[in-house]
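Researcher: Going back to the complex we discussed earlier. I've cleaned up the inputs and rechecked each line, so this should be the final set. Can you rerun the prediction on the complete assembly and write out the structure?
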Amino acid sequence: GAVVSQHPSRVICKSGTSVKIECRSLDFQATTMFWYRQFPKQSLMLMATSNEGSKATYEQGVEKDKFLINHASLTLSTLTVTSAHPEDSSFYICSARVFGSLNTGELFFGEGSRLTVL
Amino acid sequence: GDSVTQMEGPVTLSEEAFLTINCTYTATGYPSLFWYVQYPGEGLQLLLKATKADDKGSNKGFEATYRKETTSFHLEKGSVQVSDSAVYFCAQTTGTYKYIFGTGTRLKVLA
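Model: Rerun complete. Updated structure for the full complex:
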């Protein structure tokens, strides 16, 4: 099956710094990737839809200046948490769909990145 | 709007017990339905899926049947193992790019 790889898996940073998380589709081209945030013992919250070559589409309530998304190629999307604060600590997961899959398309998830802001 | 409702956990079972995790959905269209599993510290993996009414998805001993009349997609396994301990998410998509996930059900299997 399709493989999505996320890096880093864990990152600890100081408050006020920025952190970049990478999401790569290893064996397929992903024109669209999705970034989710997962709080402890809660479901996944869709943050934004990342489209290759265009601006990301953010969900209501998600600060686009806070969570910068770049999808510069068909295999790479990045999420940058800018000026991170402790409340940004969370598990961030990216996912992608294989191009061409429509109503039956499954999502392929990265391993997730746990961000801890001190 | 469209939604997915899962039974609240945690669910604690002894090894070899029968498992049912309930999932119901509301949708304006005809969704595809999925079960994803998340092991500790990892991302989500697709466990099984069904794309139309009466379809049965199955994998690793787990199965779920797409019931349109009851708008349900309950996950079952006849004999759970310790290695099945994880969080299980029910999800739907109606062909747009957006997926709707349930809140997840944590399963703990005791030896």
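Model: Worth noting: The radius of gyration of chain A is 14 Å.
Researcher: Good, that matches what I expected from the previous run.
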